[in-house]
């Protein structure tokens, strides 16, 4: 297995993330608050710098960066929008910003439609095997749009894009070029964080990215695959995509705080999990998931809580490796991670119980 790091594509992706940040400022602030994580002041300096873009390019942000789903339905803080459907990481991994803009401008209609279809099918938890059919048949694409569980506004925007893909991608690229200097200026506030993170990624032990991928996607996901890593702007995000025998892993600058458990952090991790277990609703959710899988609506109905509340609880439990998800017949089921519970009990025993040996 080859594991390598290349930060070239992040010059483009950081700008996409920055525009998502300024468009969905309230969502990200609330999301980070719920995760109980501290965000460096430089991120808010970036936000302040970008306010002028929000003021002058509001229609652009609304059309290309508006969330496909309501905030309470967003999973793991990953907002899907028109802009993020245009490209695949596997096509851009080794490319610089200006080269990526040119690649997008030259993309044929079928390629753009195929990328959009793949993103939408992924969002719905469906196989992307039929993406070519949607790329070649607009009527099939329109039928797909009707079935999607996304906002009406998003359906209409996608409807317009599907009819004239190159027109919309040209407009998208031209606007990115217009605001490129402003984006560079704003993102320069994070340059020191990025440099340190790239150094850390290059020094990272091989088992760490493997652990992160297996935690999120399962052990089989990595079979016979190489891993290509790149840094991403959102500090607590891991983005995983796959093409043939390569897994592309985008890691935020503070992702390791969630996924890596160093010895000197063991006590903090125990305390954090115990705090979670002290919440009655979260504890009841874990009890429900003992020896069985349930989807969100089932949990909400049993506990008589709203879907939004359950979604919030599940995000936090997932971040701390207490639950994981699996897709079964187009539904996302949650299940208990017994290994994390066993580790907690073992750590408690080592910390609090006298060893007679």
UniProtKB/TrEMBL annotation:
Keywords noted in UniProt: DNA-binding, Transcription, Transcription regulation
HTH arsR-type domain boundaries: 262-355
Superkingdom of the source species: Bacteria
InterPro entries reported in the protein's UniProt record: ArsR-like_HTH, HTH_ArsR_DNA-bd_dom, HTH_MetalResp_TranReg, WH-like_DNA-bd_sf, WH_DNA-bd_sf
Gene3D superfamilies: Winged helix-like DNA-binding domain superfamily/Winged helix DNA-binding domain
Pfam families, sorted: HTH_5 (PF01022)
Name the UniProt record assigns to this protein: NrsE
């Amino acid at each position: 297995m080859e594991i390598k790091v290349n930060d070239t594509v992040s010059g483009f992706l950081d700008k996409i993330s920055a525009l998502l940040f300024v468009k969905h400022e309230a969502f990200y602030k609330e999301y980070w608050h719920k995760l109980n994580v501290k965000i460096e002041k430089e991120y808010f300096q970036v936000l302040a710098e970008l306010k002028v873009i929000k003021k002058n390019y509001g229609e652009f942000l609304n059309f290309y960066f508006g969330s496909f789903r309501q905030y309470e339905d967003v999973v793991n803080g990953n907002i899907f929008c028109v802009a993020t459907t245009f490209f695949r990481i596997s096509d851009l991994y080794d490319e610089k910003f200006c080269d990526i803009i040119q690649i997008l401008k030259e993309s044929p209609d079928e390629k753009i439609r195929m990328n959009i279809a793949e993103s939408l099918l992924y969002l719905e938890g469906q196989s992307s095997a039929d993406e070519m059919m949607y790329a070649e048949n607009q009527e099939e694409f329109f039928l797909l749009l009707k079935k999607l569980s996304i906002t009406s506004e998003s359906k209409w925007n996608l409807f317009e894009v599907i009819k004239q893909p190159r027109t919309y991608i040209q407009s998208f690229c031209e606007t990115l070029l217009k605001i490129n200097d402003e984006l560079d200026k704003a993102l320069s506030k994070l340059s020191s964080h990025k440099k340190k993170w790239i150094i850390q990624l290059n020094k990272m032990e091989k088992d760490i990215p493997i652990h992160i991928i297996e935690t999120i996607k399962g052990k089989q996901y990595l079979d016979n695959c190489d891993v290509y890593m790149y840094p991403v702007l959102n500090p607590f995000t891991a983005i995983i995509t796959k093409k043939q025998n390569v897994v592309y892993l985008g890691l935020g600058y503070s992702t390791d705080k969630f996924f890596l458990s160093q010895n000197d952090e063991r006590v903090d991790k125990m305390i954090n999990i115990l705090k979670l277990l002290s919440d009655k609703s979260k504890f009841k959710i874990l009890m429900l998931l003992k020896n069985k899988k349930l989807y969100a609506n089932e949990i909400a109905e049993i506990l008589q809580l709203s879907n939004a509340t359950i979604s919030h609880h599940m995000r936090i439990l997932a971040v701390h490796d207490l639950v994981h998800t699996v897709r079964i017949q187009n539904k996302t089921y949650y299940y208990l991670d017994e290994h994390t519970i066993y580790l907690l009990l073992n750590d408690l025993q080592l910390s609090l119980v006298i060893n007679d040996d």
